[in-house]
Amino acid sequence: MKNQLKAVGAAVAALAMVAALPGMALAQDGKGVDALSQHGGAQRIAGVYGNATAKNVILFIGDGMGDSEITVARNYLHGANGSFDGLDKIGQPNLNTAEAGTGQYTTFSLGSSSSDGKYPKAGGINENAGVVTPVTDSSASGSAWATGTKTYNNAVDIDINGNPQLNLIELAKAKGLATGNVTTSEIQDATPAVLESHSTERSCYGPQGKTDGSSNNADKQCRAEQLKENGGIGSISEQLLGTRADVTIGGGSKYFRQTAQGGDYAGKTLWEQAKERGFQTVENDVDAFSALRYQENQPVLALLGDGNLPTQYNPSVATKRDPAKDENPVECTTNAKWLGNKTAAGNSASLADMTSKALDLLQANPKSQNGFFLQVEGASIDKQDHNGNACGQIGETDDLDKAISAALEKINLNDTLVIVTADHAHTSQIVESQPAYALSTVLKTKDGSNMVVSYGTSASNLYSDGNDTEGTADSSKAQGNMSHTGTQLRIAASGPGASRVDGLTDQTDNFFTIAHALGLASETADQQALSSDAKVAVKNENGKFVADLTGFNGDAVVSYELKDQSGKVLDASNSSTPVSGVRVATGETTAIALDKVAEGGSYTLTVTGRQSGKTVPLDFQGPAQGSGDKTPDGVVAEGQVQQDKKNEGIGKTGTAVLGVVMMAIALIAAGLTIKFARERR
């Protein structure tokens, strides 16, 4: 008995040691999909935060920028022993900041979940529920750091069952911070989309699908129930307008020429809608972009190209082995269409320019007194890697490096956390000589040596316009034929909380790093609590009744039901799928038209947050029947959340998962120690 008590004591001591040293390496097998798919379930350092907080966070994403892509660009631009001014500076301990960190993180995604094989929709998506997918796409990886939840390839900020997960911009807006989103891609593309929308299909760009508005292919690009005309939360572009980030800069302007097919703005283009909703808009005009200044309650929507923005360098084309390439190595040339070139008025819009402008706008915004969150993406490192275009990816890596340097000139690392990482690795490799088994490009580097860059994940360099290596390479076309790889990625940080990226983490850890630095609601229960003060006000506006919703900040989607005094349902939102219903405008007022309200009626309106479970029931009276009197404009009735303990704290959090793991370790340690004690007797 005495030995058994000692064994239990040893187990408790072992548990205490594990708790005290959360970073201690313990070889272990990975979790199953059920655990990994929970919010925070894939964290590698759950619960390890420290006390550092940041006023601001800037997240730089090099899309497809694996270690190889960084090295290719550094070697070419600065020589093998050279360094980037921005990329290589972040994470180094020489930036006059108290904290810096450099590590690696894992990037896998998960299979989708579908009972009928159609949800999530087919079309290149892994539909095998219950599997880990080793190679992620940009939407699943972006969703991981934007929400803290692993999901399937092709999904935008939803879990494997299609349930919307709150993202960093929504949570930052809930706290009253200024927010920004900058990219060199179409603003609807996966990485920028994960901060401003929720979608079962990353291709659901607009209400007419992925077109310039002259046609409609939404039936092929979007899940039908997500479209506004079917009672859904809307396309990525429509949700972007509802999310209302303070600064949004990128490409994809042609998709805003689409016409809304349903909702309050049906029949109007998205550009028209943006202007009616008070946005400062810029369409394909670098000089107008350069002239932008902060205007109160007028968020910026500046889209500077119809599609992805032009690359800095003209394309190179990877080809089969040829000794002549060694004798005539490639030297990259500047693309005349690159927006970093000066206009006649002396203006430009490189990624560095866009980052600098975003910071000017955010810092001039009174909300930035509370802080800001900004994401900046160098998007076409990935797109040109797909195309086997070494010069293209080098120029885009250089563009991102200069954007980081531009940011460092405008911020103070004592109160701003800067994180630089990528979403997934890619195919390019530096090899000793031209391979016989793959396409390659030979480049003349800064230090005068030849560098062979190999592309071995496809037998041909097929551009998306159908041009093979013998055709005309168009650097604006993506995607090409090369593919992502599943290796872990570099992540580096400087500023308050930077050391949390040290060692090996996961993409979902990055969400918690940023959320904790900014004091955002990161755990499920805390997010649900953001809707605890939700309110609904029914108003009469010129004879039309409208419900104004505020405070549903713990929800991405709400549902509603309108009943008459007999209990008959007169109107209700579509709740057939998780992306059906009314999209919440976080930190703003969400309006619901009550068209079924008539004379002489008594009504009950019930609004429910789909993520928080918070419910607001509200009784109100319609205009008196036959009175001929007009109901006065203004608030008719108001209601607030009906507290329901059953709805609070639903879902597992990273902390809960960690607790289970710690208990398991304690039980195993106790069992082994008792067994050892018995064998010793």
Task: Explain this structure.
With about 675 residues, the protein is an alpha/beta fold. The chain has three domains: about 60 residues, no CATH class; about 350 residues, Alkaline Phosphatase, subunit A; about 120 residues, Sandwich (Immunoglobulin-like). The chain is built from 17 helices and 24 strands. The strands form five sheets. The chain has a ten-stranded mixed sheet with strand order 7-8-6-5-9-1-10-14-2-15, sandwiched between helices. Strand 16 and strand 17 form a beta hairpin. Helix 3 packs across helix 14, helix 4 runs parallel beside helix 15 and helix 12 packs parallel to helix 14. The longest helix has 27 residues. It is globular and about 90 Å long. The termini are close together.
Q: Could you name the key traits of this structure?
A:
disordered C terminus; Alkaline Phosphatase, subunit A; 10-stranded mixed β-sheet; Immunoglobulin-like; alpha/beta; 681 residues
How many E strands? 24
CATH fold title of the largest domain: Alkaline Phosphatase, subunit A
Radius of gyration: 27 Å
Unreliable runs: 5-23, 113-126, 465-479, 645-681
Shape: globular
Q: Quick one: biggest sheet?
A: 10 strands, mixed
> Numbering strands along the chain, what is their spatial order in the largest sheet?
7-8-6-5-9-1-10-14-2-15
How far is the first residue's CA from the last residue's CA?
11 Å
User: How would you classify the helix and strand content by structural class?
Assistant: alpha/beta
Number of structural units classed as domains: 3
CATH superfamily of the largest domain: Alkaline Phosphatase, subunit A
Amount of beta strand: 15-25%
Number of helices: 17
CATH architectural arrangement of the largest domain: 3-Layer(aba) Sandwich
Secondary structure: helix percent: 10-25%
Average pLDDT works out at: 86
What is the highest CATH level, the class of the largest domain?
Alpha Beta
